[in-house]
């Protein structure tokens, strides 16, 4: 039986955990304690224009990817109007994505994972880091799941999102000026 946990062992260069007994290492040690990643609890404060910029970019990207799937499958139907994207994706069912400007959220109704409300969250923009250098994503604050991950897992739609302010501004440059 293992008696206690050590964090350092000369055999592996000091990395990892090993359980030891009074006469040496355990042959079948228990796994190390789980280190849980902190789940964000508050969205990033953004103004209405910034919300629309990020939400519109995301919705347009999902719309384009869903239409590409529709072109390859007769049974998939995609409709996008007034900020509401409907994707009928047999055999799963119908997915509804819609903007919620009063809450600055994107809502998803999924026949697999249920309803979820995603907030814009920027990571990597702390006091010690350059302003505007963080990247953002739509995150379900209850469990830390991103909207991109849900769409990838349930619909095989990959949305490449670079939510940094700098890159969004680059994408909107009008070269005719």
From TrEMBL:
Catalytic activity annotated for this protein?
Answer: 4 Fe(2+) + O2 + 4 H(+) = 4 Fe(3+) + 2 H2O
| Alphabetized SMART domains for the sequence | Frataxin_Cyay
This entry's Enzyme Commission designation comes to: 1.16.3.1
Q: Which UniProt keywords apply?
A: Ion transport, Iron, Iron storage, Iron transport, Mitochondrion, Oxidoreductase, Transit peptide, Transport
UniProt xrefs under InterPro entries: Frataxin, Frataxin/CyaY, Frataxin/CyaY_sf, Frataxin_CS
GO molecular function list: 2 iron, 2 sulfur cluster binding; ferric iron binding; ferrous iron binding; ferroxidase activity; iron chaperone activity
Q: Which domain of life is it from?
A: Eukaryota
- Where in or outside the cell is it found? Mitochondrion
> Which GO CC annotations does the UniProt entry carry?
mitochondrion
Main localization of the protein described in the UniProt heading? mitochondrion
Q: Which SUPFAM superfamilies match?
A: Frataxin/Nqo15-like
Q: Which GO terms describe its biological process?
A: intracellular iron ion homeostasis; iron ion transport; iron-sulfur cluster assembly
Q: Which PANTHER family match?
A: FRATAXIN, FRATAXIN, MITOCHONDRIAL
Q: Give the family, as the similarity comment puts it.
A: Belongs to the frataxin family.
Q: What is this protein called?
A: ferroxidase
């Amino acid at each position: 039986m293992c008696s206690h946990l050590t964090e350092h062992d000369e055999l592996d260069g000091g990395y990892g955990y090993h359980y030891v007994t009074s006469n040496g290492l355990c042959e079948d040690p228990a796994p190390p304690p789980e280190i849980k990643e902190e789940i964000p609890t508050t969205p990033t404060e953004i103004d209405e224009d910034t919300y629309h910029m990020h939400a519109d970019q995301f919705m347009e990207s999902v719309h384009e990817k869903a239409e590409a799937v529709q072109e390859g499958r007769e049974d998939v139907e995609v409709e996008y109007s007034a900020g509401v994207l409907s994707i009928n994706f047999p055999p799963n069912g119908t997915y509804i994505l819609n903007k919620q400007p009063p809450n600055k959220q994107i809502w998803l109704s999924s026949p697999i994972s249920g309803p979820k409300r995603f907030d814009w969250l920027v990571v990597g923009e702390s006091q010690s880091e350059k302003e505007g250098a963080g990247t953002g994503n739509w995150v379900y604050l209850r469990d830390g799941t991103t909207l991109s991950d849900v769409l990838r897992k349930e619909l095989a739609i990959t949305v490449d999102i670079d939510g940094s302010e700098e890159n969004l501004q680059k994408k909107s440059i009008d070269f005719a000026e």
